[in-house]
Automatic annotation (TrEMBL):
GO terms for cellular component: cytosol. The lineage of its organism: unclassified sequences, metagenomes, ecological metagenomes. It comes from freshwater metagenome. This is Unannotated protein. InterPro entries: Aminoacid_DH-like_N_sf, NAD(P)-bd_dom_sf, Shikimate_DH-bd_N, Shikimate_DH_fam. One of its GO terms (molecular function) is shikimate 3-dehydrogenase (NADP+) activity. SUPFAM superfamilies: Aminoacid dehydrogenase-like, N-terminal domain, NAD(P)-binding Rossmann-fold domains. One of its GO terms (biological process) is shikimate metabolic process.
């Protein structure tokens, strides 16, 4: 036991809530661990991991590093969890596991599924704004939790990245019909049971949407609470807060980091999740 160092990597990184929620968990569990923010871009990631393998027990990675982490791991022969290989992205790096080599995995999928579990109905149609790593993760979560999903529409600048989400439908042998539309088409779209926004706040605020209707729901994974938030098109009761996904992917990271085994104070995972949520709500 004792002091262990953890961090979240990304660029930009100052906005990250990860240190707040991880520290809330450490406080409840009686751990004297340290969790910080480190600015690292894609071109710097491989060198950073090479030089800091002995300095951190575990790392969280946010944009734009998730796909790069899988590439670096494969190049180094590290173990890459099946879910990370399937998605082509990872958000978690574990030091000196499995025979002394680092392990990378993706806990975003667990966070996404937990957040989607709050929906009061099954999703027959879904629209995703964006086509990056987070969009692909949400696509997989929707496909795995909604066997009755009939249509999945992706709005993005280019069709090529969105094609990776379409490939998931084939891989899973799901019945859903896939459609790609340019982001500008969101202004004239007929709507969906669920709209998922993965676009950065500054980009999303410039998108004209016509997706909110009736009892439809929105899941804004950016957890933007400003007046320009895309979620404001929907009533509060029909919004899934992205911070729920953030907390539950972090809860899985805590488990992988060994927090519950090394805890000096016993607390259930539900209690830890609540402490983490309370720290940012």
């Amino acid at each position: 036991m004792g002091i262990k160092q953890f961090a979240v990597l990304g660029d930009p990184i100052d906005h990250s809530l990860s240190p707040i929620i991880h520290q809330a968990a450490y406080n409840l569990l009686g751990l004297d661990w340290i969790y910080s923010r480190v600015k690292v871009n894609e071109s710097e990631l491989a060198k950073f991991l090479e030089e800091n393998q002995g300095n951190y027990a575990g790392l969280s990675l946010t944009m734009p590093l998730k796909a790069e982490l899988v590439r670096v791991a494969n190049n180094n022969g590290w173990q890459v969890a099946e879910v990370a290989q399937l998605l082509g992205s990872a958000n978690t790096w574990l030091a000196q596991a499995q025979g002394g080599q680092p392990v990378v995995t993706n806990t975003d999928l667990i966070g996404a599924k937990t957040a989607l579990a709050a929906l009061p109905m099954s999703v027959g149609s879904a629209a995703i704004l964006g086509s990056g790593a987070t969009a692909k993760t949400l696509g997989l979560a929707l496909l795995q939790t909604n066997s009755d999903l009939e249509t999945l529409t992706v709005f993005s600048r280019r069709p090529e990245p969105a094609g990776e989400i379409a490939d998931l439908i084939t891989t899973l042998q799901h019945k859903a019909k896939f459609e790609w539309l340019p982001i500008e088409a969101a202004a004239d779209f007929g709507g969906a049971d669920l709209t998922v926004n993965t676009l950065p706040s500054k980009v999303a605020s410039q998108v004209e949407v016509d997706l909110a209707f009736g009892d439809s729901f929105v899941f804004d994974v950016t957890y933007d609470s400003s007046d320009e938030s895309l979620a404001n098109y929907w009533p509060v009761s029909n919004r899934i807060d992205g911070r729920v996904m953030l907390v539950h992917q972090a809860l899985e990271q805590l488990r992988l980091f060994g927090a519950f085994e090394e805890a000096r104070r016993i607390a259930s995972q539900d209690a830890v999740a609540q402490a983490m949520l309370s720290s940012i709500f």
